[in-house]
Amino acid sequence: MASTSTTTLYLHFLLLMLTFCSFHHQLSFAFTSQDYHEALEKSILFFEGQRSGKLPSNQKLTWRGDSGLSDGSSYHVDLIGGYYDAGDNLKFGLPMAFTTTLLAWSVIEFGSSMQDQIDNARAAIRWSTDYLLKAATTTPDTLYVQVGEPNMDHRCWERPEDMDTPRNVYKVSAQNPGSDVAAETAAALAASSLVFRDTDPSYSSKLLQAAIQVFNFADRYRGSYSDSLNSVVCPFYCSYSGYHDELLWGASWIYRASGISSYKQFIQSNGHTLGADDDGYTFSWDDKRPGTKILLSKEFLEKDSEEFQLYKAHADNYICSLVPGSPGFQAQYTPGGILYKGSESNLQYVTSTSFLLLIYAKYLNTNGGAVSCGTSKITEQNLIKLAKKQVDYILGDNPTKMSYMVGFGEKYPKHIHHRGSSLPSIRVQPQQISCNNGFQYLHSGSPNPNVLVGAIVGGPDSSDNFSDDRNNYQQSEPATYINAPFVGALAFFSGQESS
């Protein structure tokens, strides 16, 4: 009798599993390299929607117009151009520089897979580096780090083309240092110099010289820009991790771009005091530690340089923290499988982490290495698989079956927290919409009239729930630094043969 019962239970179990697998298969998303390439194209196009300044004639997101054309003029400096960081009309130097570094790193590592998008990727980088060059080289021992008064800007809901809030300019200097934002700017300029080395050597050289100049400034006058500028940058882009991580990151990028031995010596001499021994498990516009360790581990993997062995060990620790079941695992994932770090703009951590996983997989593959997690060995394929799960989730393979990239797939967020996207285009309604009159569009239940193609929003909560609500900025606001590392991740998968 027991035997029959066991057999019946077993048959029930098999039937249940077959039903589940069949159901799951119907719901699953098998993205092809063409799908990833489409997403890549859109993820780069998004940056056009964030442009400040005089738009070029080949602008494809035509609902946007010129804006911020007098930025810096009252301070007798040209700060026209660059990017608005998110859904507002402010230009913050720290996230803009980090965005630029990651766009450049995307091209450096995976540009060969970008095909017809490589020129668009370079244009997205150049839009920022042209601005950062002006910010970094206009005045000696000065870096302009912000345009716009945040509290005033956030009290208005208006198109960038209509801005009438104060365009205050903020800077760091020898008297008011900002090593974090200056060293990140140095990293952005140095990484970008590698992007243009073959296509525009003179521009590349200009970027590298500026990187060296601004890094020397960051190192000579040490201090956090949060202390110097306080309420202007906090709580918006307060440097919570301090400036040590940026100094090491900036030096690493200049060394990678130039090979100048004094930067290698800087890394060796200052690594311990600048956080090389600290295991940071979050890679973001604020904290560069995991990125630096993976960047420098390349030196160890390629040249077996003893002095960089420490970085390989710490890079492994970072990877182990992400791999479920491995010793050292400490990440949190939602039931649907997405990495979860925080309730506000969580997808920024997902895109940056996925990008680092793929870069490390590439470095390991090139040099026949593996990740050591205690006695376990994690292969490059494990890293690629984990990154793919994250990328696919963002593109729609998730419990809500929603793509978190605007304009990709059949179902995506329609009410994103973004001024230019949510207000009628200046092409449709040329007359000015004033500061307060824009709020009717913020609170409207209608979809945004202008599709900010390629924008990745903040994303779902820890239970995979998402509220497509313009007022819920934690989930519905896009940002340049969410998209930037995703460009590299999508380039990687668009270059893979479809499975």
UniProtKB/TrEMBL annotation:
SUPFAM superfamilies: Six-hairpin glycosidases (SSF48208). Keywords: Carbohydrate metabolism, Cellulose degradation, Glycosidase, Hydrolase, Polysaccharide degradation, Signal. Gene3D superfamilies: 1.50.10.10. GO terms for molecular function: cellulase activity. It is an enzyme of class 3 (hydrolase). One of its GO terms (biological process) is cellulose catabolic process. The keyword Signal applies. Its EC number is 3.2.1.4. It catalyses: Endohydrolysis of (1->4)-beta-D-glucosidic linkages in cellulose, lichenin and cereal beta-D-glucans. InterPro entries: 6-hairpin_glycosidase_sf, 6hp_glycosidase-like_sf, Glyco_hydro_9, Glyco_hydro_9_Asp/Glu_AS, Glyco_hydro_9_His_AS. The active site is at 417, 468, 477. Residues 36-490 form the Glycoside hydrolase family domain. Residues 1-30 form the signal peptide. It comes from the Eukaryota. The keyword Cytoplasm does not apply. Belongs to the glycosyl hydrolase 9 (cellulase E) family. This is Endoglucanase. It comes from Medicago truncatula (Barrel medic). The gene is 11438939.
